[in-house]
Amino acid sequence: MPSGGRATRCSVATARNSGRRAGAFAAVLLALAGCAPGSPPSSPAPAVPASSSPPGAATSATGSPSGPLSDAELAGIINGVGRARNLPYPAAQDSTRLRSGAASGSFPPTRTETTPGECVALVPGDPFTHWADKDISFADGGMPPSGGESGPTTTIGIVLRSAEKASIAKADFGYTDNLLSRCGQFDLAYTEADRTSPYAIQLLTAPPIADKQHAFMQVTKPKGAGDFGSVGLRVLHGTLSISLTLAVATLNSGADAKPALDSMAELAKELISEAGKPQAPAVPNAPNSLTPDQMVALFKGMTTPGGEPVNLPQARIIGLPQGSTPTVLTPPPDSPCTLDEQSYDASLAGSVSGQGQIQGATKMDYTDFTVVNTPSATQPPYPFDARAEQLRSCASVQEILLGGGSRTWSSVTALATAITADSRYAVAYQLSDGTGEWHVQSGARRGTLSVEAAGRTASQAEAQSKADALASFFAAVFSRAGK
């Protein structure tokens, strides 16, 4: 569990193998929902004829992008459909954050193989490779079917890609109709690091939507108890490539897949229609001395002064929550010891931020940290400074967590901070979780760069040595950054 404050455990946003085994590319498309596709039929189902409609096929979607779309424009298309469906949150992920993860080199090696081998052309490409590809724009996201709620089997995973028409057609739909007839059923093996997961793929009849499309159902091979299946739809419309995936609890035949396929076909048409509308120009990011890629590179190969490995897998540009406006963080006069993480995030809009982890001697011995570089034009008072002032002067703290919920820090005690910085703090506290553990949270800022970290100790007596170790880590980060 996280120790407290802004530092939270961070990992690549992919669904991992579990009792409901995650399914290769479909698992990643469903990452936002935490879904795990894959669930085979008890016996092979008869192949359903696949279709790929010619250009000009009938469709209710209209409009076509006039050229390649950028990452931001693709995210805008997903979010535009989300707004039309009255979603209370942005439906698209931050492409900048995902690309920075690719730049970190922290993703595991992967391999996708099919039997027959030629059928690999029908499989969505590895997302890690997509994120690293600077020649093709992309955006990832997820949303429930129209009128539905998000859940493990009710969130459609979305991947949009765009490039020049010939390039995107070759990259994502480089196959002939003859291949579709030969690959009505095939096997897929997806390897991540040293673990291989096998699946059976069956093509389905794809509704005529755009220039080219195909659909499939994916099940684990062999079946595991509680395994889900997944249904996928891939559509090419001019310079826009759409890949949609939805987990299905029971998937034994094409008939089981039809409701999911119908929902995804409707979403594909909405995405195409949204892409045909004039896209609002992207708001330029505030000038910042670090890009997300540079933030990740700052920590690449780093160890703490004590020799512990440091990992920062991704970084992002902090945006505003939907419907919010920028805020200036000041402690509420009636509750100065309330630590509101949502408000703090809003005060950092435009900053480049990353969450990482310092790994100790054992798996459970870890320290979470957050690094933030505010825009170059940021002027005092810095958001971090108000936060540090709050934590230095409170005997107890009510922490309001991101996403809702709260918890109380009790017995808050200020600790010494032996680091040269423009602003700093270090505190020890306990939570009412019955563990008896002490938590240490500290942070420091030099110029536009601030680092905060949170760890645990078995006793209050060890808290100061933990704070000293964190101060040494902060100094090392500032040194690497030239601060």
Describe the structure using short key phrases.
483 residues, alpha+beta, 9-stranded mixed sheet, 8-stranded antiparallel sheet, 11 helices, 24% helix, disordered N terminus
Question: Any overview of this molecule?
Answer:
- By secondary structure, the protein is of the alpha+beta class.
- The chain has eleven helices and 17 strands.
- It has helices at 24-29, 71-84, 95-104, 127-132, 165-173, 177-182, 254-275, 292-299, 341-347, 383-392, 463-481, and strands at 110-115, 137-143, 156-162, 185-192, 195-204, 212-220, 229-237, 240-248, 310-317, 338-340, 352-359, 366-373, 397-400, 406-414, 423-430, 438-446, 449-457.
- A hairpin with a 7-residue loop joins strand 5 (195-204) and strand 6.
- It is elongated, with a radius of gyration of 24 Å.
- It starts with 23 loop residues before the first helix and ends with a helix.
- The relative contact order is 0.14.
